[in-house]
Write a structure and sequence with these properties.
six-stranded mixed β-sheet; alpha/beta; 401 residues; single chain; 6 strands
Length: 401
């Protein structure tokens, strides 16, 4: 995620601030507490938001804790205790209350998937950091650099679906949202000073439209495992059976795939193809407990793969754009992409801060010829049309035969 520094990239490091002694966070576990909290939050102009999930411990992960911070207090809403947090939807949809996230897209997707929430008025401190070209965009790194706060990242990897939550978990969770408010103030000042506030507002405006899409399981996904294409044909047949077995096993146990068998171990099993529990225990990555719990299923999958037909190699495309763009549009896309990468390097930001590949494809397909045609391209908001519009038209004109 982190890109090399350019000559124009600035860190704008502030002197670390001593962490103040914070009052205990307020844990919300009852419906009456939630209603009281909502009455308080509706009076606030800005609320910081974060979530914790059990994605490291479940196949069907869920939101396990919702952190909400205002200047006077930090609230930890427990959806597992409450069972119904849908009243919070009115807060997220309220356009008069700004919600501050770090990496809002992941939280928005989880909220839409689990609760069907809609969103308005978002401020994203990650997008702000990217627009400003900050070298550090990870929240823990930002808090350490800008506020002298060290997050105990061990708590991030704990099981947030287990109750009761430990004091260490509660302390970690509240810090994730508590400092988003002063971070927002710091970023607003810098965005304003560098004339980037309008660009940031345009980026924030795209976030409420992010949707959760369920991705169906791909039975041919084993081809995408790192190292799969270096296996022999028979090993590939075994890998396919192991891949299908692992998916079914993880779903049934409600565990992440890597906690059943990791990708590297899966490839090692396919390559060596052990035939009994003793040989299975010799495979790197196969613990005693894994052999005990999953050994029979693994050996069965290996035996099935030994008898199965060999998978036929898939055609590898350099990327997907050839499926969607004709020859002329592809030439425009490549020219736009080269321009975008140069522009991003000049600014000291990631290329997609200027325009994403999907947005470039949309522009290449439409191939506008005048400034009046640019508003028809939904990917471009007013700021980007004004800032990049003439350059885009020049690039398209030079790329068009």
């Amino acid at each position: 995620m982190h890109k090399p520094h350019s000559a124009n990239r600035q860190s704008h490091t502030s002197s670390p601030v001593a962490a103040p002694q914070l009052p205990p966070p307020i844990l919300v576990t009852e419906a009456t507490q939630l209603q009281q909290l909502l009455r308080e939050l509706r009076r606030q102009p800005v609320v910081a938001v974060d979530t914790e999930s059990d994605s490291l411990f479940a196949y069907y992960y869920k939101v396990c804790l919702i952190q909400l911070s205002v200047p006077e207090a930090d609230y930890l809403v427990d959806p597992l205790a409450l069972q119904d947090v849908t009243p919070l939807g009115s807060l997220f949809a309220n356009p008069t209350v700004q919600k501050v996230f770090h990496a809002a897209d992941s939280d928005i997707v989880a909220f839409k998937r689990d609760y069907g929430f809609t969103f308005a008025n978002i401020f994203d401190t990650l997008w702000s950091a990217r627009i400003l070209g900050w070298a550090n965009r990870n929240l823990a790194a930002i808090l350490k650099e800008r506020f002298g706060i060290r997050l105990d990242k061990r708590s991030q990897r704990t099981n947030w679906g287990r109750r009761p939550l430990s004091p260490e978990q509660l302390a970690y969770a509240r810090l994730d949202s508590h400092y988003l408010l002063p971070l927002r103030e710091m970023q607003i000042a810098e965005l304003t000073a560098r004339a980037r506030m309008e660009e940031a507002a345009e980026a924030f405006g795209r976030l409420p439209g992010i949707e959760w899409e369920e991705k169906p399981f791909d039975p041919d996904g084993f081809w995408r495992l790192n190292g799969a294409r270096e296996l022999s044909p028979r090993a590939l047949a075994v890998l396919r059976e192991l891949y299908l077995w692992r998916e079914e096993r993880a779903r049934r146990l409600d565990r992440p795939l890597f906690k059943v068998v990791g990708d590297r171990t899966l490839l090692q099993l396919a390559e060596e193809r052990p035939g009994d529990p003793q040989a299975l225990r010799q495979i790197p990555g196969m613990s005693r407990n894994q052999v005990k719990w999953h050994g029979r299923g693994i050996l069965t999958a290996i035996a099935q793969g030994q008898r199965a037909s060999v998978p036929q190699p898939q055609v590898r495309r350099r990327n997907n754009r050839a499926k969607y763009l004709d020859k002329a549009a592809l030439a425009c896309y490549e020219a736009l992409r080269a321009w975008r990468n140069t522009r991003a390097a000049e600014r000291g930001v990631d290329p997609d801060v200027v325009l994403s590949n999907a947005e470039l494809r949309s522009i290449a397909q439409r191939a506008p010829k005048t400034l009046e045609e640019l508003p028809e391209i939904e990917a471009l908001g007013p700021w980007r049309r004004e800032t990049y519009g003439q350059e885009l038209l020049s690039v398209l004109a030079s790329a068009t035969p």
